[in-house]
Amino acid sequence: MGATTGSTEVQLREQVVRLGRAMWERGLVSANDGNVSVRLPDGNVLCTPTGVSKGFMTPEMLPVVALDGTPLRGELRPSSEVLMHLRAYLEDPAVGAVVHAHPLHATAFAIKGEPLTGLMMPESVVAMPEVPLAPYATPSTSQVPDSIAPFVRSHTGCLLEHHGALTWGPDLMTAYLAMERLEYTARITVLARQIDGERQLSPERVAEVRRRFGIPA
Ligand SMILES: [Zn+2]
Question: Which of 27, 47, 146, 205 is deepest in the core (most CB within 10 A)?
Answer without folding.
Answer: 47
